[in-house]
Please model this.
Amino acid sequence: MKKLYSRPESLNKSASGFCPGCMHGTITKITAQVIDELELGEKTICCLPVGCGTLGLLYWNLDLVGCAHGRAPAVATGIKRSRPQNLVFTYQGDGDLGAIGTAEIIHAANRGENFTTIFVNNSIYGMTGGQMAPTTLVGQKSTTSPTGRDPALAGYPMNISEIIASLRAPAYVARFAVNTPANINKAKAGIKKAFEIQLRNGGFTFIEILSNCPTNWGMTPLETLDFIEEQTMKQFPLGIFKEPEEEIDKC
Amino acid sequence: MTRVFMKGCEAIAEAAIRGGCRFFAGYPITPQNEIPEYMSRELPRHGGVFVQGESEIASIYMVYGAAAAGNYAMTSSSSPGISLKSEGLSYLAAAKLPAVVVSVMRAGPGLGTILPAQNDYFQATKASGHGGFRTITFAPSTLQEAVDLTYQAFEYAQRDRNPVIIAIDGFLGAIMEPVVLPPFKELKEPPKWAVTGKKGKMYHIITPATANENSQQAFNLQMEKLYRRWAQEDVRVEEYRVEDAEFVFAAYGTSGRVCKSVVNALREQGVKAGLIRPITINPFPYRSFEKLDPDRVKAVIVAEMAIPPQLLYDVRVGVGRAIPITIVRASGGNIISQKEAVEKVLSLQKGEMDYEEII
Model:
């Protein structure tokens, strides 16, 4: 009999502490699968954020570095520059990366640091209890935008991938989702591509993945799938914003 | 051993490279720019990495990452910049990561001036960030001492898995003096705890977090044990002409340097003056003050470039209440005046005590 499915080697045999229906579990799993498939387990260093992703300290079976809120790209810079032979990636949420860590991510991208960032965007601060994030949709309710995000007071959602893709140095910038099996497969392929680019010293790679937060959105997990399709993707369209094939103007 | 004529900041940078530093990240701020400038020029020649961070915050986290990967890493800054690095210093201490941080103090608070000061004594010794951690903090008063301490700082950082601070000021950073440079240290393999990729099922975790209240308290107790060991084993102090002194100065760094001249000038006039100069301002040489004989010593004079005074508090802890303490001070970029310090002692001889301390 052939075994078709099992827990990735790059994850521990611990129970998940993510909320029921949370997509962090899926995103963590497909990333671990890619590391296994590329046989990079002994080569990988993972930089974890502050937020729900911090729980990864318990789940990843990889060398791990816990970072301060928003600073993972700076930490990854120090690691990768010291050990270019390792595969280095940061795993960050939208509060961590899109608010307090904006400077760190933009400048790591702009230096073309040869590591990968996996950016989990669920439009809210999950760990702290559902506050408004830079990525919260217009009109979307949170504990600090109780009547819905008002652009007159809080501006508009920030499209981080598009901002990073506007820089010259990054090699690969793309946005995926994990709300359907087809999208999960595409996201996994994107992560694999990013790691392969890093392995051939191709420069900075940025994978944004649209995620959910049933707990703080106040929805059932199934409702969040529709919300992502109908609302989130309007603001954050899926797609590849930058690829290495693009010939960089050398003048 | 090479003897060369060097500027303070550059001598520190060179000593760091010779001490094994192969990673530097920093952000421009006066009066310490010569350190990153020197590193950007020299580190790549030794196979090292220089990164100009987008901020002081990013720079110290680059150092955090390099240290986690087993590299000997350093950053430097000045007062407002050290404030920005304080979060990172706390994370380094929590994650048990070794690093060397050079604090070139300028006058404050706020933007203050770019001129030399010692207003950041508390920051350098007691509250370099949140959470109640400590560092070994060296306060050299000559460039040779700065070179020797920077060279050794990396070993202390690695030994303790804790950041080490070198606290100087804009004066020491800018002056030029002849220094003997130590030889280049042989680089070591990354320590066993460093993240280099897991081996089989054994993976490394570097984390500033603890699981619960008991593991947090256990960590705090473990750190307290380390700090107590420093107090026993790592205190460094220069006691200059203290044996028979009736008037004892307490001063470190640039002020310590000035007070040495003051002691010599007073001795020439027949006044029995001496100097206790802390070289580690943490751990503090309390013992040097505790052993002062109240029957002989008429006054302890704290000389520091900080208003209100800060070093005074540690001196008071050491001296107790048996000997009067007074101060000579300056701030804003002013250096301790030798003339003022001499006159202070001469007036003390006449029994005049003019400073009411606020402890």
The longest strand of chain A covers residues 87-93. DSSP finds ten helices and nine strands in chain A. The mean pLDDT of chain A is 96.
